[in-house]
Design goal:
With 212 residues, this protein is an alpha/beta fold. 42% of the residues lie in helices and 20% in strands.
């Protein structure tokens, strides 16, 4: 790469690599996450005179939610990560096509989240959901034959991590993830995104939720 290129041109070249079919899909999917990590690392050096590893903390807490209304409408999915001190790492939002029921929507969102954690090179993750059936289905997949294929994908993805565990959250302790997911349909926000830290419009609630 030409060292004289502007930052914008360098970023464009990296993003263009996502269209190169000869590059493995996993490598192409990792490009945006790598650029985020580089940006975060650069800011840490400039503003705090510190330098972080490109990998996240070895273990993170990830609160998740799927906002499902009915089998005709799109649903919204979200996740937000925190470290052991409750500090927010990243959060993301995604719109999904209609699902026949709530648990199908939850499983589809979970698959997206596990793939996102892989792309961020998270090694150990504790996933918190306020949907009890989701956690029960993961623990006892044979009791949920209707969802066999989705549960098989979840199992295959979890085996790629050194550690993945699931916790049942209350609605109060999962409020931020719920609100981000609800914004998809409530505000017609169908464009997916990934961001560092938490959304500014939920800043106060994030501070309160960290106490849980």
């Amino acid at each position: 790469m030409d060292p004289n290129l502007s930052l914008a041109n360098k970023l464009a070249l990296w993003l263009d690599l996502m269209l190169v079919q000869s590059i493995p899909i996993d490598s192409r999917r990792a490009i945006p996450w790598l650029l985020w990590a580089v940006w975060k690392n650069m800011n840490a050096v400039i503003f705090a005179s510190t330098q972080e590893s490109l990998g996240m903390q070895s273990q993170v807490k990830c609160n998740i939610h799927a906002n499902w209304r009915n089998d005709k409408l799109h649903c919204g999915g979200s996740w937000i990560t925190r470290d052991h001190q409750g500090r927010v790492g990243h959060h993301a939002r995604e719109a999904f096509t209609s699902s026949p029921d709530k648990l199908t929507a939850e499983l589809r969102v979970l698959i997206w989240i596990l793939q996102s954690m892989q792309d961020l090179q998270v090694q150990e993750v504790v996933i918190g959901s306020d949907h009890c059936d989701l956690v029960e289905a993961i623990k006892r997949p044979n009791d949920w034959p209707r969802y066999r294929w989705l549960l098989h994908q979840v199992t295959a993805l979890t085996r790629e991590f050194p550690l993945v565990c699931f916790e049942i959250e209350s609605s109060a302790s999962n409020h931020v993830a719920r609100e981000i997911a609800k914004s998809v349909m409530r505000n017609s926000m169908f464009q997916s995104y990934l961001a560092l830290s938490g959304p500014s419009w939920l800043h106060d609630r994030i501070r309160q939720e960290s106490a849980f």
